[in-house]
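Design request, tokens follow.
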């Protein structure tokens, strides 16, 4: 418990006081990643009831919002490769998911295969990928034998991707050497059952902090994919954009990355190297998007004004998605490429009040950009849900599942989105984020049916007319053909009549 609190306090310490207050009011905090279920003598070796805290890898897909049970499997290294190759170890008792474990008096649950490996000699991602080929459903990695890291230290360790993480589809977690040794020793004596849970704090409104760069194609691609979910959840989702802005020493030779080269206070990565786009242009775009968010985000019109709830900006989402196509990072014409001119033109098309935007930029440039410099995440592109670090692929389905697990009560919009229905469909459901009345829905469906009936009648009339026309033309052609044959026959008979009787 102490380890978890330490990690949480560290995350809270870097947040704005008002955001901390918001979280403390609305969240029901949950903790636990690995819980030992049996044997009981192993559970007793942990003072917190058999709970082990660890660091989740930034690749793979954790079971957000779910609790799954599994049996630990381990294979000794046969070739000294420390679980880095497929031939290095064998899992004799694999596919335990076919077995069932008794829970309580009646219920039985399926067990998944949780493979335990040791750290060392190759990357984390490589070890997990190998375990995945052996049909592992999750991986627990035990830190090196020589490691003296505590659970607090492990939780702050970032387990990154080495390039093969995109091939990994299962979750994995790193635990301390001391705790891992206890588990491995117990596995020598008999089976060890665990419960895995990647819970995030729960709330009525899910707070989503997303760190990105306006010059990052990956960030823009995710926003494009997630737009329908954001529109469907709308005021149930408090989306807060953050941007990767940093400072450099004054007078730095990399001044072209900064909004002001002399001070180098606000700088951003150059997205195209020697190309025409500069870090300075990215900082300016980051600021425009921050101001666009602040001037356009609104509270739900259906909410009591006295209630402090989430805000949502349809204009912001329209802009960031449209900007990728209308003002791309590449292109020959500067007027239709990433930059001030193209950005303002697109905003004007979307109905943004450019005077309000200019005022926001003038009055708040230093305030907003200073906040971005100070409020850094563990990575230039990062996602935090209800103040909890998200570990997993930046994939629409994985992120949406994690977000929906963060609601105290899962809304119906989540059900429709996770079931694969288009997000726009949820807007027609009475009581949804943009819910309409049953009367409006009834008349909409009625008008649609009337339109289809009229369209069918017009189509039927068109087909009937066309068929009749074709038949008339075919009949006329047949008559003309018969008349031509008759005319030839008549001419032949007439010619023979003029020749007189035949002589032999």
């Amino acid at each position: 418990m102490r380890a978890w609190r330490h990690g949480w306090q560290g995350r809270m310490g870097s947040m704005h006081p008002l955001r901390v207050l918001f979280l403390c009011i609305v969240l029901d905090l949950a903790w636990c990643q690995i819980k030992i279920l049996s044997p009981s003598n192993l559970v007793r070796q942990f003072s917190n009831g058999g709970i082990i805290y660890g660091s989740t890898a930034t690749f793979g897909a954790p079971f957000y919002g779910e609790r799954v049970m599994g049996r630990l499997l381990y294979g000794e290294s046969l070739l000294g490769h420390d679980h880095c190759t497929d031939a290095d170890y064998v899992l004799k008792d694999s596919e335990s998911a076919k077995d069932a474990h008794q829970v309580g008096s009646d219920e039985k649950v399926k067990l998944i295969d949780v493979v335990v490996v040791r750290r060392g000699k190759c990357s984390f991602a490589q070890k997990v990928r190998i375990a995945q080929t052996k049909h592992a459903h999750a991986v627990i990695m035990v830190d090196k034998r020589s490691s003296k890291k505590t659970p607090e230290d492990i939780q702050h360790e970032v387990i990154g991707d080495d390039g093969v993480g995109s091939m990994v589809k299962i979750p994995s977690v790193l635990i301390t050497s001391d705790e891992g040794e206890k588990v491995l020793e117990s596995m020598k004596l008999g089976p060890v059952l665990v419960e895995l849970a990647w819970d995030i704090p729960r709330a009525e409104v899910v707070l989503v902090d997303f760190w990105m760069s306006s010059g990052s194609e990956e960030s823009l691609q995710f926003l494009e994919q997630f737009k329908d979910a954001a529109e469907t959840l709308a005021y149930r989702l408090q989306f807060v954009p953050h941007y990767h802005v940093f400072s450099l020493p004054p007078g730095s030779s990399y001044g072209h990355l900064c909004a002001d080269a002399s001070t180098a206070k606000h700088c951003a990565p150059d997205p195209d190297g020697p190309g025409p786009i500069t870090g300075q242009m990215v900082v300016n775009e980051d600021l425009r998007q921050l101001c666009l968010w602040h001037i356009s985000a609104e509270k739900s019109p259906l909410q009591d004004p006295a209630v402090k709830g989430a805000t949502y900006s349809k204009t912001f989402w329209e802009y960031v998605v449209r900007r990728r196509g209308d003002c791309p990072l590449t292109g020959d014409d500067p007027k239709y490429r990433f930059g001030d001119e193209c950005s303002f033109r697109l905003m004007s098309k979307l109905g943004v009040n450019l005077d309000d935007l200019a005022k926001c930029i003038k009055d708040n440039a230093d305030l907003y950009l200073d906040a971005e410099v100070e409020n850094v995440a563990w990575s230039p592109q990062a996602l935090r849900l209800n103040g909890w670090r998200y570990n997993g692929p930046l994939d629409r389905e994985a992120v949406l599942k994690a977000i929906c697990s963060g609601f105290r009560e899962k809304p119906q919009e989540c059900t429709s989105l996770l079931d694969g229905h288009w997000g726009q469909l949820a807007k027609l459901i009475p009581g949804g984020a943009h819910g309409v009345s049953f009367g409006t829905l009834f008349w909409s469906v009625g008008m649609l049916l009337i339109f289809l009936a009229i369209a069918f009648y017009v189509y039927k009339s068109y087909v009937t007319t066309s068929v009749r026309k074709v038949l008339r033309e075919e009949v006329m052609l047949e008559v003309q053909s018969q008349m031509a044959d008759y005319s030839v026959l008549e001419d032949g008979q007439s010619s023979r009549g003029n020749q007189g009787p035949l002589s032999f």
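Comment from the thread starter after seeing the answer: thanks! The first strand starts at residue 34 and ends at 38.
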